[in-house]
Amino acid sequence: MSATSRPSELRAAEAQALDLRALGRWPLPDAGGGKEGRGQVLVVGGSRRTPGSVLLAAEAALRSGAGKVQVATVESVAVAVSVALPEALVCPLPETAQGEIDRGAAATILGLAEDSEAVLLGPGLTDPESARVLMEHVVPDLRGPVAVLDALAMAYLTAHRDGVAHLDGRVVLSPNLVELATTLQVDEDTVAGQLAQRSQELARTAGAVVVTGGEQTVVSTVQGEVWLLDDPLPGLGSAGSGDVKAGVIAGLAARGLEPEAASVWGVHLHHAAGRRLARQAPVGFLARELLPCLPGVMRDAQAALTTG
After folding, report:
1. What is the mean predicted confidence (pLDDT) over 173-202?
2. Model confidence over 211-226: pLDDT tens digits?
3. Phi and psi of 127, rounded to 5°?
4. Containing H/E element for 44?
């Protein structure tokens, strides 16, 4: 179903189709040169029970062309993460008795962020309260890199709606529908029925690009622009898929794309990888299977833009 045949809320929001024409507004940065020229991503997240989330996000950043990736995660899983992703520098962080990142890790995280072009916060955090406390010790002191707040890092915005204003728009919020509803303090049905308006509401109040959705994906900016990807892929509604998408956005931001451009491109590449896998079966593919598809769909999009 196209954007023009959707319910009136999307038509009222004047959503633009998130397609190749949208991508053509922002050419991808030059892929030439060494790894230093393609930026560094810092991924902060994971817990004793969920080390896989940072693995997915970090590899997605590399697969989208970032030059280097650092992963900051709890000490108990740091060695395993390092072995699973030898391309990344992995920094062990102090953890709570429950296996979450301890607030005392904030200084280390901020130190790592100083050398990064993009910082992805949140994948794999599992306790909302400890996530909020950690973010309260990290986000206010972030300066310089593009910040991508994903998953439970959004707990910080629930408590501090204007808590990323100091980043001057260099921030992407990537909540799912439940996290968006929690942040806005409304029920999930309201968000699902007013997706464009509610994402715009958060974009305006937070001063950030917002990437959210379920069967539909919406990208909203502070300036009021809305892009809609309306091509449901049931197979993308699986564990870890959002970590991949957030990692792609962070990787593209590290390469030099502005937050809105990295978000639109990231949503497209994530979806295109899913579309490629869905040719075999509509469901049953894994989030980690999206990763090797990313370079190819990025190449195809660039080629289509060049020839189109």
Report:
1. 94
2. 999 889 999 999 999 9
3. -115, 115
4. strand 40-44
